[in-house]
Design a protein that fits this description.
binds zinc ion, alpha/beta, Zincin-like, four-stranded mixed sheet, 237 residues, 6 helices, 2 domains
Length: 237
């Protein structure tokens, strides 16, 4: 495997290339934004670069789509003083000693309580449990609200909802009509959560991201572009 890059307009496209005994050259963009080329054994590097360059517009489009779903959070250390988000707001973390293990959110502070001052690993576990508990309630509540609008379009009312830890997406839906939401999404505002839920609900009717999909999205959530933009900003912080 080799690494190479091409310039396409003002952007640079880095890619990896693997040669193998195959007939045709294939370019793929992964959810983590990696561009991968699989080429027949005898393909010279300049031909590969030319092919990547030709697909520049398509690669950029794929990047943009995947970027919408990349939850880019700086790594957290789970120590007192750092900020953690919940429903679009910042909260200061405080790890303290107390009678029993709990997490409380009071006046802009997230208290993580443990019998002895919780070590980062313990604090992380407790806080994640708290996020999950709140995600279960909030996501369900938002699903009910979004379904009120979506059922008009013949979209199934309240499809099964699951919460997962995902690395590269905010949400997804399965062929069986299940909706999966990233646990991290509980850190975004309700309007962004609604955007992701509505997006997945629309996929129950239109699986791909073609014009029909975005028309449906526009109909059910006329300000979806704005919400999408906010979700991106949120992810960039
Ligand atoms: Zn989608």
């Amino acid at each position: 495997m080799t690494c190479d890059r091409v310039r396409w307009g003002r952007i640079e496209i880095p890619f990896t290339c693997k040669w193998s005994p195959r007939e045709t050259l294939a370019i793929s963009v992964h959810p983590d934004l990696r561009v991968e080329v699989n080429a027949p054994l005898d393909t010279p590097p300049e031909v590969i670069r030319e092919r990547v360059n030709k697909r520049g517009a398509w690669i950029r489009k794929a990047w943009r789509e995947f970027e919408l779903y990349l939850p880019k959070q700086p790594p957290r250390r789970y120590v007192s003083g750092e900020t953690h988000r919940y429903l679009g707001r910042q909260y200061r973390l405080r790890c303290v000693e107390g009678n029993e293990e709990s997490v409380k959110c009071l006046r802009g502070i997230l208290y993580v309580v443990s019998r002895t001052e919780p070590a980062p690993e313990r604090a992380k576990m407790l806080l994640e449990g708290w996020y999950r508990e709140h995600a279960r309630r909030v996501f369900r509540e938002r699903l009910v609200e979004c379904c009120k609008r979506a059922t008009v379009e013949g979209i199934e009312n309240k499809p099964p909802l699951f919460i997962r830890k995902m690395v590269s997406r905010w949400g997804s839906c399965s062929g069986k009509g299940r909706i999966y939401l990233n646990l991290e999404l509980i850190k975004a505002s309700r309007e962004c959560i609604d955007y992701v839920i509505m997006h997945e609900l629309c996929h129950l009717k239109v699986p791909s991201h073609g014009p029909r999909f975005w028309r449906l999205m526009e109909k059910l959530m006329p300000d979806y572009e704005e919400r999408k933009r906010k979700l991106n900003q949120f992810a960039d912080v």
